[in-house]
Amino acid sequence: MTLSSQNPSHDFSLARSANLCRHLTLASQSFPEQLAVAVQTASCSFFSPKTLSYQELNFGELNRQSDKLAHGLNAYGIKRGMKAVLMVTPSLDFFTLTFALFKAGIIPILVDPGMGVKNLKQCFIESAPDAFIGIPKAHLARKLFGWGKESVRFLVTAGGRCLWGGVSIDTLLQGTPDTPYQMAALDEDEMVAILFTSGSTGTPKGVVYSHKMFEAQITALKHDYAIEPGERDLATFPLFSLFGPALGMASIVPEMDASKPITANPDYLFAAIEKYQCSNMFVNPALIERLGEAGVTDNQCHQLPSIKRVISAGAPATISSIKRFSRMLGEGVEVLNSYGATESLPLSKMASQALFATTDITDNGGGICVGEAIDGVDIAIIEINEHPINTWDETLRLAANDIGEIVVKGPMVSRSYYRRDSATEQAKIIDGDGVRHRMGDLGYLDSEGKLWMCGRKAHRVDASTQLPHQPQRYFSIPCERIFNTHPQVKRSALVGVNVSGDTVPLLCIELDTSLACSAGASLYAELNQIAQSHEQTKGISRFLVHPSFPVDIRHNAKIFREKLAVWAQSKHKE
Asked: In this protein, which residues make up the domain named AMP-dependent synthetase/ligase (predicted)?
């Protein structure tokens, strides 16, 4: 089965040599005084409560300052083709630095600080950066943990004094010409950035981003999400915030730790939306839940009348959290749930009202619907296997409603990982002049061409017992959603444990602590009854209650099932 969306009105072709910063330059020429970036800061003193202030740049200023900084980077010795780690918190410096790097053809390396010290060090070893650009705290960590010590030759400090060598941004800007910068002309397949995956579903890998990939993402946001110049976006994810100026849309950055959105102060975000009358929001499931809980209570419902579009990505948000959050939105405004990954985003989208209509299917083990492919994307389902596939063949496609691995092709799909040949071989399939990416997710395409997610390939449980009338293969999302319908279950996680040499399915349960839970024996009896009443869960008879699931800090939704599997195996031996 295939799902391919092709619209001739969407032109993904590029000139052989271009630079994505041309969008910023055009905006600065068309509406130089229009707001491009606003950054919110919360400050307080001993005698007064926290107050919110804002720093702003219009399109003309952002273009001129990034030009000056590109001149300064070159004068310092950082040239086209060099790689630079960028560890700068969302700020005006973050925007001017990133656009300066793109203009100069210097390759930014973007990492998620939440991936942990060990993973960060490995990322720097693999990417071998020539320069390290960061805030003072990042430079301190670089010194303490030895990040990039084998390759880094240039040090730049943003947002503070230069305490550990190198130069500050202010120093770079001294004496640089206030003249337009001649942007590097980049081939459409040239590497323009390295974005490391978060590591929440495995070891972080550096995804090679080409000019063509960024252009395809900008095109998708413009056409498939109907974003127009003059809009204002509440930007809660640093990478997405960069697309705002490229779309002629202002990026409004709230005071929050982007790597830990669950800790955000909802009042700050509501204040930023109201001040700038934001029309767009890009939020992950953790923020949807956080804002919904804060804005919708028994006594009040905060209203967001200026918002006309909400884009959610990163992990599937729960239907209950989307419904609660949607009460703050105006009539007809929907949450657009996007499916994709660092290697390929966006791929498909599903509006919230259509998602609500799939609740019964999801609750009965049908997976989570993530919608139809956006224009220019081809989605196919192939057999589940762990072996590399060198060349694409149309006979690999499965029929409608057959569960298998999701494989995608489109202009926003990455061609390789940086210096990870084995990972590239495992995840990429050559298809003519293009590449297909194996998502590592399982799912199926229904008869209408909609994609349904059934969990990660690594999270399936292949049972080795040979019992009649029971499935041999269990999928995480279908199984877990069935058990999540129990009123006392907050969430569940399917794992496999070894019992006398056989692999058997076991379900870890996290209870809803806001409820008075029944005794263990009666709860297990009810869970067993649920298991036997659905074909997808027959044979699951082992349950363990876990006090609090380990989850990723960015999305607060991706469960670390590998850790739970180790815990469950240890408990099973007791």
From this structure: 53-418
pLDDT of residue 333: 97
- pTM listed for this prediction: 0.92
Contact predicate 378/167, CB 8 Å: no
Q: What pLDDT shows up at residue 157?
A: 97
Which residue in the block uniquely carries the two structure tokens 């069935």? 482
Distance CA(557)–CA(551), nearest Å, equals 6
How far apart are alpha carbons 204 and 111 in whole angstroms?
9
* Ramachandran angles phi, psi of 171, nearest 5°: -65, -40
Confidence (pLDDT) at 109: 96
- Work out the angle between the directed axes of helices 520-532 and 476-483 (0-180°, nearest 10): 130
> In degrees, to the nearest 5, what angle opens at C-alpha 517 toward C-alphas 513 and 520?
120
* pLDDT beneath 70, residues of the chain: 1-17, 45-49, 200-202, 465-471, 516-519, 553-557, 573-574
Residue 479 lies in domain: 460-573
Residue type, 94: F
From 303, 318, 333, give the residue that closes a domain.
333
Residues 149 and 54 in one domain: yes
Let me know: does 62 contact 28? Beta carbons within 8 Å.
yes
464 found inside a domain: yes
264 and 163, same domain (yes or no): no
Which residues, other chains included, contact 356 with Cβ-Cβ below 8 Å and sequence gap of 6+? Answer: 319, 322, 323
- Which of 393-402's residues contact partners 24+ apart within 8 Å by CB, and which partners? 397/1, 397/2, 398/1, 398/444, 399/1, 400/1, 400/444, 400/445, 400/446, 400/447, 401/1, 401/444, 401/445, 401/446, 401/447, 402/1, 402/444
CB 496 within 8 A of CB 539: no
CB 274 within 8 A of CB 303: no
